[in-house]
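Hello forum,

I keep getting stuck at the same step: I have a sequence, I want structure tokens, and every attempt I make locally crashes halfway through. Rather than fight my setup again tonight, could one of you with a working pipeline run this one for me? It's a single chain of 683 residues.
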Amino acid sequence: MNGIDTASCSDVSFCDNPKFSLYSGQIKTESLCGPLKDYKPMIIKIASRSPLESLWDYLMRHYHYLGYQRLLGHSLKYLAFFEDRPVAAFSFSAAALKVRVRDSFIGWSQEQRKAHLKRVVNNSRFLILPWISIANLASHLLSCVVRQLVKDWHRNFNISPWLIETYVDPIQFKGTSYKAANWRYIGMTGGFGKRTPGYVYHGSIKEVYVYVLKSDFRDRIGCCQRPYSFINRPASLIKIQELQMILREAGWKPSTLPDVDFTEEEVEGLAERLIEFHQKFHSIYGRKEHHRLGLAYLTGLISDIKDKSVEPIALGLLGKQSVRSLQLFMKHYQWNERAMEDAHQRMLAKRISCKGGMLNADSSEFVKKGKESVGVARQYCGTLGKVENCQSGVFVGYSSEKGFGLLSSRLYMPEVWFTQDYEQRRKDTLVPEELEFNTKLDLARELVNEIIAKSLFDYSWIGVDATFGSDIDFLNSLPSTTPYFASIRSNEKVFLEKPLVAVPHYKGKGRRPEKVKVLSDIHRYTVAEIAKQCSFTPVIIAEGAKGPIVAEVARIRVYPSRDALPLETPRWLFIRKMSDGQMKYAFSNAPEDISFKEMIRASTLRWPIEQCFQEGKSHIGMDHYEHRSWPAWHRHMIFVFIGLHFLLQVRTELKKTLFDTPTGSQIGSISASPSLTYQGRGN
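Reply #2:
Ran it on my machine without issues. Output:
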């Protein structure tokens, strides 16, 4: 018995004759809105293998969020028209080969699936054009096109379908039109995609809807529906072992990084790897309950949970009753976060420390609303490139040819937070009483010296971002035995040759000169102006998942300007131009005879730290936190560090490229001194 009535709708006409009312001309994009009754009848036409197919392809390519893709297997394309205007487009194609929730809903065996998969049709595309706003149109057209599909599929392919499936991206859509058209939601996909020779994890989890065309389809197959829990179990867990079981058996999925392919077997093994990795920090917790909460927090940061703050993590992994416990774990519970940071550093050093590495100091900002979060103030936000209400942290990382990671951090506390007006806020946010105001430069210097004192990481360079690279006093305070590679801003001014400086001779009138000035006719230029005249060399700065990442580089000896005067000794100005035109500038006090190749290599060691912040904020929840206290901010950052550490370990052990790997190899020959002929005017 059929699950639907296949009679035509009285207010929709169907046409598979391309000569009937053939659409031609430009697409009209004037808005259509209002009640559905004002736009009847609609006409639905088969576009496949007709002159309308090019229109269907054009609409999908320009207006569907997934764009145009070739349909797999048997397929039919449809267009819906009101009068001469297209309003919607559909496609139906071959069903997905394996979908756990669908296969459990049907209940078939592998042999039965192989024999009867052709009876399942996939609604692979559904598009309502963006200028169409007709109430209930989507569900109405869905119901009507399904009725016609049964006839068309049999007529074109000699197959009578029993079931239609579709996959809805919950980030983009709510599935309302499918529900209104009596489709049935049966669960979620696992986030895998077919790729020879098996399946890989892409992390794009979809909602699965089905429409039953033959209510007796299981009798025809000879199977029974299998039970399948498609809802993530709200784990009312009180033991570590129970949380571990959730990770192993309840469908936990990692966050997806760009261009990373996990096989289904590898994803299933990641939970076990994460549990073993977290066990290495067991001794730093005060109680077993802390171990469970720490594992949950780390798991949540690495998972595909959309909002990676305390409440969503607790609800997703521990249950509603544990939200408060996880909040207290991050803010108040007594466990040794400094010991966790030390253990992380020791473990990471064993994995990636090697000769030629670079210590890196960077600042990063986190936009915040309100005034109650610790350290929040209106200050320069590098993320936005302007003054904004935000928090700012100072971070130290390490990079080498073996890998990279973040090591330690400190929240910057603006000076206003140490005034009498902020005394209560400091108490409320648990700021240590002994804490005194320090500039970001002070914090970076202290953190770098702490890492150096531990002697865990072998380094030949110290790298810093433009927050620190533009301060000559800070650069001069770094260890003199190690060259620095310091990012600077594009408006930094330099001299191309050292001018004569002295106190001007007294000319007998007015006040006698006392300040030293530039006396020779040698101008200052911004580094951006100099870059326009440089001769660049193309190099491969990283091996990305999609091939080599190429940049153009140049270097030249300059005298940085301070208070309109040149420094006593010259520095290297290193310029990197990315393929998108973005320019990066850096000073280095490396010896004059250092090879260009070694400086290029040093520049590639700054690249991975930029990646750490990008991946941390995009995939590990670095900026998702809602913590307001001093302890919770620092504990959150440590968990982010060990989350990145875990992914680095996975990359190494599974031979995956989770991040772009620095190389520094040249494409062409590298000259020892790129030419520069400057024609501009300085000041």
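The CA atoms of residues 237 and 318 lie 6 Å apart. If your local run keeps crashing, start a new thread with the error log.
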